[in-house]
Predict the structure.
Amino acid sequence: RYNMHEEKQSFEVKLENAKVILDTLSNPELSLEEGMKKYQEGIAILKEATKMLEEAKLTYTKLQEKEELA
């Protein structure tokens, strides 16, 4: 289960958690309140995963630039 205070999770773990939340949201018996909580958790996870992708992209770009200069 996703823990908002868990700082370091891999990108893959974040995606897996987002999938679990998506599955939970598709349950027709889920209450509106619980659904909103899960939705907010999912959005937070996806934002973190997006940030990780951006950071990886920046690192990759910097490494490419170093290679070109070498």
Observations:
- The longest helix spans residues 32-69.
- The two ends are 45 Å apart (CA to CA).
- The mean pLDDT is 89.
- The chain has two helices and no strands.
